[in-house]
Design a protein that fits this description.
- By secondary structure, this protein is of the alpha/beta class.
- It has two domains: 2-174, 3-Layer(aba) Sandwich (Rossmann fold), CATH 3.40.50.620; 187-278, Pantoate--beta-alanine Ligase, Chain: A,domain 2.
- 41% of the residues lie in helices and 21% in strands.
- The chain is built from twelve helices and nine strands.
- It has helices spanning 7-19, 35-47, 65-70, 75-84, 95-98, 111-114, 117-121, 125-140, 152-164, 194-199, 202-215, 221-232; strands at residues 2-4, 24-29, 50-55, 89-91, 144-148, 170-174, 238-246, 259-269, 272-282.
- The strands form two sheets. The protein has a six-stranded parallel β-sheet with strand order 1-4-3-2-5-6, with helices on both faces.
- The longest helix is centred in the middle third of the chain and has 16 residues, at 125-140.
- The structure holds adenosine monophosphate.
């Protein structure tokens, strides 16, 4: 496995691969890798001949400086996991490498897809995501980009970016990998205390309750949301950032429970912010 930190080194290897007609798969991450990230790698290895993982905690996508400072780092274990899972190249740049002083800063956004969910409660977050992902797509020249559906809004926004601007890359969404008790795997789970880790299982259980309530015939969206909100708030130390029901394509709020709906939530358990979502089909 090759590990590089400089753009020039990355470009040299990518250019060599391109000459050899390799198909490049790219999985952008912020490190502290777990089995969820490795699912992206697995799908990439099935679809491509070379897999690149980037590990970069991107400062421009953190609207809360404390969240950026406390974001976990585990480079040594990350590299081991990548090696074990057959990653071909890890790109591990510093902030200075990705953001040399720019004379003309660019701000990117897709307003309609950013007006709800995390875009609404984390202003500036997706601007940072669009910026770093665009740069990394160009540097890796990837044919395929792999994104977890746990971050559904991110997946939708990146898909729209590449479709609308004709980026020569195909975006693939990978299903959410969960712990045995249903909690979506996340690097942030490491920051939960033992007690808060237990409380966090309210999130996957809330999705179970959501489906059960729909199956039992509930069709009133406000009543449904209230039942689910009350359930989450039974937890100690729980604060709901949002619990929204939106159209899975436009990400706009829905006024009725019909067809496929995206139920998405962001919840603070203690000071750790966890997100999860599910597309639920209302019969
Ligand atoms: P992150 O390191 O949290 O920025 O995530 C990097 C990529 O891994 C993103 O595309 C995430 O959606 C994806 N990812 C993170 N957690 C999971 C999970 N539990 N299941 C599937 N994909 C995930």
């Amino acid at each position: 496995m090759i590990v590089v930190s400089e753009i020039s080194e990355l470009k040299k290897i990518v250019s060599n691969w391109k000459q050899k007609k390799e198909i490049i798969g790219f999985c952008p991450t912020m490190g502290t890798l777990h089995a969820g990230h490795m699912d992206l790698v697995k799908v990439s290895k099935e679809k491509t001949t070379k897999t690149i993982v980037s590990i970069f905690i991107n400062p421009t996508q953190f609207n809360d400086p404390k969240d950026f400072e406390t974001y976990p780092k585990n480079t040594e274990t990350d590299l081991k996991l990548c090696e074990e899972n057959g990653v071909d190249l890890v790109f591990l740049p510093s902030v200075g490498v990705m953001y040399p002083k720019s004379e003309t800063p660019i701000q990117m956004s897709i307003p309609s897809l950013q007006s709800t969910l995390c875009g609404r409660t984390r202003p500036g977050h997706f601007e940072g995501v669009l910026q770093i992902v665009s740069k990394l797509f160009h540097l890796t020249e990837a044919n395929f980009g792999f994104f977890g559906l746990k971050d559904y809004q991110q997946y939708r926004i990146i898909k729209a970016l590449t479709d609308e601007l004709n980026f020569p890359i195909q975006i693939v969404g990978v299903p959410t990998k969960r712990e045995a008790d249903g909690l979506a795997m996340s690097s942030r789970n490491l920051r939960l205390s033992l007690k808060d880790r237990e409380t966090a299982t309210l999130i996957p259980r809330m999705f179970q309750l959501a489906k059960k309530t729909i199956l039992s015939g509930e069709r009133n969206l406000s009543v449904w949301r209230e039942i689910l909100t009350d359930f989450l708030l039974t937890g100690m130390n729980v604060k709901i950032d949002y619990l929204e029901v939106v159209d899975p394509f436009t990400l706009q709020p829905l006024s009725e429970l019909r067809g496929d709906v995206l139920l998405a939530t962001a919840v603070f358990v203690g000071d750790v912010r966890l997100i999860d979502n599910e597309i639920i089909t209302c019969p």
